[in-house]
């Protein structure tokens, strides 16, 4: 979650309250939030319902979305919606059991944690289940309502049941404890219909790292191994994915890399920055973008670095003093991500990790949800036109909502409704064992347009192929 607390605490309370009241009063004059759908107009993806009837994917997304988006009028714009995420601490109790994984790829050696959603339980007193030896956990201990699986529980974990299962990727420096993802998980698992797990990025959610490798915006390797393990452990469960913010960018890259071989049946991309180059430029373009948002994210990443400095500093590519001197997110990426992964500049890193083109390689149904006043995943970076070129995706935009905010009057979060509705429709109404059928496969991205006309010359021009997943940085992804 974005940490704006220190910045907000520096502003006098009277000024904050006066500003909120003034904007709240003015906001009553504001039109209702606008909802728009962006998708291919002339090439549908047809899905088969369990009743045997067909339904277009666009209709699935539209029917899952509330007709209105009426948010809290006192949180008038994206800045207030975003700030409120750091001030409002909802009690959304989701309980987890943790399992550590060691990467099977020598190119990405290290450990990461997966937290599985379980029914509420009394926290154990067994030191091993709380990792009191701190083998895998930071000194401050595990996140709330989280403990390790026992050996007996792990042995009983595999199942042949057919419950849908959601795989969750969190934001920049977050983890399974983040409230925005718990808002999604709580209603899904409430009646026992769904299973869910969170793939924590390396070093996040109070985990230790065992090598100098953290993660980046195209770090798909742990997700890939996690999904393969889930497929083997729960062979009959339809798997779905959701990513938030940076996790949404990672998930999009993963889906594109997997292409036709993707094991997920559907996905949700929530508040993704998409074009990292544009998002970075916009952040630095305004005082609040640079000195509030970029600085807050840079501080969060520097804090994460300090939690693992003993391990990361062993990497001969890393200049610890350079990282400790940074203030902004792009400076952190320049000082740590670039030397770690071999990028010459942060711009090269952003161009390579951007997920806009990756989206064109996705071959499963996915819904993207974005707020156009998001100050971090900005409107200018959204793939409006690209969405019209693929039948597999629908982008739902709202005119306000901030970054992972969408707070309604009374405290509920609007985005929970379309997300949970969509996932339930895909799991309960759509027969995901039958692949979707593209109305005009010849119009998929990568195919060269051909207009038959006797008056035209034979097409003798070179026929290059567009590969949306062709990267500049070669990595052993193990696909």
UniProtKB/TrEMBL annotation:
Keywords: Hydrolase, Membrane, Transferase, Transmembrane, Transmembrane helix
Region (Disordered): 442-466
One GO BP: medium-chain fatty acid catabolic process
Pfam families the record matches: Abhydrolase_1
Reaction(s) the record says it catalyses: an aliphatic alcohol + acetyl-CoA = an acetyl ester + CoA
Record flagged with keyword Heme: no
Key word Hydrolase present: yes
Domain AB hydrolase-1: 164-378
Active site residues per record: 245 (charge relay system), 374 (charge relay system), 403 (charge relay system)
Biased composition (Basic and acidic residues): 442-460
Family that this chain belongs to: Belongs to the AB hydrolase superfamily. AB hydrolase 4 family.
Role of this protein: Displays enzymatic activity both for medium-chain fatty acid (MCFA) ethyl ester synthesis and hydrolysis (esterase activity). MCFA are toxic for yeast and this enzyme could thus be involved in their detoxification by esterification.
PANTHER family, alphabetized: ABHYDROLASE DOMAIN-CONTAINING PROTEIN (PTHR10794), ALPHA_BETA HYDROLASE 1, ISOFORM A (PTHR10794:SF63)
Protein name from the UniProt record: alcohol O-acetyltransferase
Organism annotation: Penicillium brevicompactum
């Amino acid at each position: 979650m974005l940490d704006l607390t220190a910045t907000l605490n520096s502003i006098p309370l009277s000024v904050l309250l006066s500003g909120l009241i003034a904007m709240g009063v003015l906001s009553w004059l504001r039109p209702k939030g606008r909802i728009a759908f962006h998708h291919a107009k002339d090439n549908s993806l047809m899905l088969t319902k369990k009743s045997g009837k067909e339904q277009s994917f666009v209709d699935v997304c539209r029917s899952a979305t509330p007709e209105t988006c009426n948010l809290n009028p006192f949180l008038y714009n994206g800045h207030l919606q975003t700030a409120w995420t750091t001030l409002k601490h909802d009690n959304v109790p989701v309980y987890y059991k943790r399992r550590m994984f060691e990467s099977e790829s020598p190119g990405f050696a290290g450990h990461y944690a997966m937290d599985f959603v379980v029914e509420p339980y009394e926290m154990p007193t067994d030191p091993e289940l709380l990792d009191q030896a701190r083998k895998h956990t930071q000194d401050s201990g595990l996140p709330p309502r989280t403990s390790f699986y026992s050996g007996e529980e792990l042995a009983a974990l595999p199942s042949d049941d057919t419950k849908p299962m959601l795989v969750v990727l969190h934001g920049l420096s977050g983890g399974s404890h983040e409230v925005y993802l718990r808002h999604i998980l709580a209603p899904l698992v409430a009646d026992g219909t769904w299973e869910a797990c969170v793939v924590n990025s390396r070093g996040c959610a109070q985990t230790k790292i065992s090598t100098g490798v953290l993660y980046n915006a195209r770090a798909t390797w742990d997700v890939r191994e996690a999904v393969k393990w889930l497929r083997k452990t729960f062979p009959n469960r339809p798997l779905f994915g959701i990513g938030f913010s940076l996790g949404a960018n990672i998930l999009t890259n993963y889906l594109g890399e997997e292409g036709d071989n993707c094991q997920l049946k559907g996905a949700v991309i929530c508040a993704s920055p998409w074009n990292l180059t544009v998002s970075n430029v916009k952040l630095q373009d305004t005082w609040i973008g640079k000195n509030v948002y970029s600085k807050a994210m840079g501080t969060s990443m520097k804090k994460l670095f300090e939690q693992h400095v003993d391990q990361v500093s062993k990497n001969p590519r890393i200049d610890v003093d350079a990282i400790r001197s940074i203030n902004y997110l792009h400076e952190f990426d320049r000082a740590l991500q670039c030397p770690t992964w071999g990028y010459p500049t942060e711009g090269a890193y952003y161009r390579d990790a951007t997920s806009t083109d990756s989206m064109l390689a996705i071959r499963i149904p996915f819904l993207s949800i974005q707020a156009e006043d998001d100050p971090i995943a900005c409107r200018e970076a959204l793939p409006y036109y690209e969405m019209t070129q693929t039948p597999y995706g629908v982008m739902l935009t709202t005119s306000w909502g901030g970054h992972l905010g969408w707070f309604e009057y009374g405290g509920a979060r609007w985005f929970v409704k379309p997300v949970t509705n969509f996932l339930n429709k895909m799991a309960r109404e759509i027969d995901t064992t039958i692949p979707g059928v593209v109305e005009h496969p010849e119009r998929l991205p990568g195919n060269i347009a051909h207009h038959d006309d006797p008056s035209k010359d034979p097409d003798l021009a070179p026929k290059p192929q567009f590969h949306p997943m062709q990267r500049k940085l070669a990595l052993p992804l193990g696909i």
